[in-house]
Amino acid sequence: MSESSLSRTALRTCDSPVADGLLDSLAPWLAEWLPRQRWFAGKDRPISGFGLVTATELLPCVSPGVTPGPGLLHLLVRARQRGRHADAPGGTGAPSAPDTADCYQLLLGVRDVPPPVPAPALIGRPGSGPLRGRTVYEALHDPQLTGLLLERLSRPGQQGTLRFLRGSDSPVPSGLLPSPLATEQSNSSVVYGSRYILKLFRRVERGVNPDLELPLALARHGSARVPAPTAWFEADLPHDGPTGARVPPAPLTLGVLQPFLPGRRNGWQLALNALAEQRDFTEEARSLGRATAEVHTGLAEALPTCVLGRRVLERTAADMTERLEAAGDAVPELRPYRHGLRNAFRDLAGLGRRGHTCPAQRVHGDLHLGQVLGMPGGHWSLIDFEGEPARPLAERRGMQPVIRDIAGMLRSFDYAACRHAPGAGGAFAREWATASRAAFCAGYARASGTDPREEATLLRAYETDKTVYEVLYEARHRPAWLPVPMSAVRRLAASPVR
Predict the structure, then answer these.
(1) Do residues 309 and 352 make contact, with C-beta atoms less than 8 angstroms apart?
(2) Which pLDDT score, from 0 to 100, does residue 248 have?
(3) How far is 456 from 451, CA to CA, in rounded Å?
């Protein structure tokens, strides 16, 4: 959206009485606070300005003639940042990237005296504007305000530019104790008692988020592998098209409330526990393969599918090669292996030239052990269908081969083994990963009728592409973890050409 159209949109959609002068007074505080948040995408570049897209008071922040109480303010704010220069840290050597203006969802608590909240949740006390002299903070750490949000989600309807919807008629009980999850990543989550979990999407785009769209489709199809959305909220934002013509409003998914699954444990932790105890994990991996296949089958039956032919396979291989070159420019450790890794993508392009086709459908998009919940007996549930948050929403909503999800899970078994026993040692961990990978594929084959290992060229290409993504991610965010994907780089680069 252009800056001029953003301004026109803001005039139409800022329905809060505090909107006038709000962003000017908050901007200095937000410029300091936003880059410190785990979910802020542009940590490597300074913020050059803000644009207010919407402002909605879920609980009035200023009531003339009334002693001010707590306020709850919902904002959609566009943070402008200059593009990364080619010679800057993390640059790729390519021409400088264009300026960006990502849109972020903020839920702000407003009080004269804030409740006890962690210091990182405090934003500041504006000295001017409609909130002058009041403390502004991250509202998810205020039980009164997060309780109000749950109450609002339980009642379908419109409030300002926000629309609240329900997935079922079952009542949502009140009085559940809210608790924000400490392990924030690209989003923020609040657990209500042991009944519900609310995920709030932080960096948002127009379009239905896959983490709402796919669980809804699976629930309507009767799948028991994915928690069905209980409620959600969204915004409709009109905007100008490329020729200045008005474009119909498009829904923008902001948050999803789903049943919480008590007694389930994160697959990553279950895997690490098995490694620590030197315990076989093949039965769990086999069950997880079956669960994954059931979800893929449900998605293929509930939503459209297609077949990828030569042109798409060659384009996919070219995109993978381009990502490899860019990652190698940014991460020197990867450069010696680029030639060997390219072979996987050349082989994929060769499949297309030989007339090979590949079924495609909606998939999870970011499947790994941290995205599954298990319990004794081997029952698994898949969660977090958002896909890789760094990718554009339109791409995440596209159809992909199921091999993409399978490659992500196979990489996750290797990750767990390498984290348990880094370096050249750890014979048990290496054997554990090999056995778990094979068991997962066997379980998938039994449930789906198709063994992913029979598509060796396709699987190798997607596993290589995922490993390149991991190298770039670890180099930028967790350098101490870089040896984990690099061990896979060495293996994949040495694989023979098929």
Answers:
(1) yes
(2) 67
(3) 10
Phi, psi values for residue 151, rounded to 5°: -60, -40
CB atoms within 10 A of CB 383: 22
| pTM (2 d.p.) | 0.88
At 32, give phi and psi (nearest 5°).
Answer: -85, -40
Mean pLDDT lowest among 2-6, 145-149, 338-342: 2-6
Provide the 8-state DSSP code for 294.
Answer: H
Q: Which residues pair with 207 in a beta bridge?
A: 252
Beta carbons of 357 and 308 less than 8 angstroms apart? yes
pLDDT at position 15:
59
Number of continuous H segments (helices) and E segments (strands) in the chain:
13, 18
Q: Give the C-alpha separation, 295 to 278, whole Å.
A: 30
The CA distance from 94 to 279, in Å, is 47
Tokens of 379: 């029952």
CA angle 312, 317, 319 (to 5 degrees): 90
Distance CA 498, CA 188 (A): 43
- Which phi and psi (to 5°) does residue 265 adopt? -125, 145
**What residues contact residue 284 under an 8 Å CB cut-off, 6+ apart?**
270, 271, 274, 374, 378
Give the span between the Cα atoms of 30 and 51, in whole angstroms. 12
Classified as helix, coil or strand, 283 is: helix
pLDDT tens track for 251-282: 899 999 999 988 889 999 999 999 999 999 99
- Please give the domain boundaries of the chain with CATH numbers for all domains: 3-259 (no CATH), 265-493 (3.90.1200.10)
Q: Which residues pair with 137 in a beta bridge?
A: 109, 122
Contact 441, 452 (CB under 8 A): yes
